[in-house]
Design brief:
The chain is an alpha/beta fold. The protein contains 6 helices and 7 strands; from the N terminus they run E-H-E-E-H-E-H-E-H-E-H-H-E. It has a 7-stranded parallel β-sheet with strand order 3-2-1-4-5-6-7, sandwiched between helices. The chain starts with a strand and ends with a strand. The relative contact order is 0.15. InterPro entries: NAD(P)-bd_dom_sf, Sc_DH/Rdtase_CS, SDR_fam. It comes from Bradyrhizobium agreste. Belongs to the short-chain dehydrogenases/reductases (SDR) family.
Length: 226
């Protein structure tokens, strides 16, 4: 990771913070993008671009181009920005499906489209998306979320095929992630079976590394201990 420029979306969230911290500890330069406002001043090693709606293509391009201008190049895009909703199909609201599509599919699509011209100029261009194991077979209440994450899976495969030989594109598919929010929502669950943010970060950063140069179009499940 030393010297690589990483764009991390959703950088102020539970997963984004861990991924960026681990990457920085290994010498990476971080351009963080988030919907929430950022109060951190830019430095030669880090810039946070807050207040960005990545479901809007123009805003995504402006933020990515700003990151590229700050560092002079981009090497890796990690699409973590997203959202979750639990709602049954019959009793739910169509607006939930639209919101999940915007938060999970459009954010990854718009940021990838904005970053790809920059990544193609790198000797090691990488995109890592966040899918979901729950999108492989949706259960009750998981329809809107699973459908949107399935869209991320197909986006990953399409981009990997279209940019083969120029940029690798892969996705990690976590099971339930051990965050404060998930523990609050499922207090009786066995947290020991959940994937930790640190474990997820390790897989993400492997896919972003030189060691993963031969891996593209992969959907990699993470977690789900027995």
């Amino acid at each position: 990771m030393r010297g690589k420029v990483l764009v991390v979306t959703g950088v102020l969230g539970a997963i984004g913070k861990v991924v960026s911290e681990v990457a920085r500890s290994r010498g990476a330069l971080i351009a963080g993008i988030d919907h929430a406002p950022s109060q951190l001043p830019a430095t030669p090693e880090r810039i946070e671009i807050g207040g960005v709606d990545l479901s809007d293509a123009a805003q995504a391009k402006t933020a990515v181009d700003r990151a590229a201008k700050h560092f002079g190049r981009l090497d890796v895009l990690i699409n973590i920005a997203g959202g979750f909703a639990f709602e049954t199909v019959g009793d739910g609201d169509i607006a939930t499906w639209q919101r999940m599509h915007a938060l999970n599919v459009l954010t990854a699509l718009n940021t990838s489209r904005a970053a790809l011209p920059h990544l193609a100029e790198s000797m090691a261009g990488r995109i890592v998306n966040i899918g979901a194991m729950g999108a492989l077979q949706a259960g009750s209440g998981m329809g809107p979320y699973a459908a949107s994450k399935a869209g991320v899976h197909r986006l990953t495969e399409a981009l990997a095929s279209e940019w083969k030989g120029k940029v690798t594109v892969n996705a990690v598919l976590p099971s339930i992630i051990d965050t404060k929010a998930n523990r609050a929502d499922m207090p009786k669950a066995d947290f020991s079976k959940w994937v930790t943010p640190q474990e997820l970060a390790e897989v993400i950063l492997f896919l972003a590394s030189d060691a993963a140069s031969g891996v593209t179009g992969a959907l990699i499940p993470v977690g789900g201990r027995m």
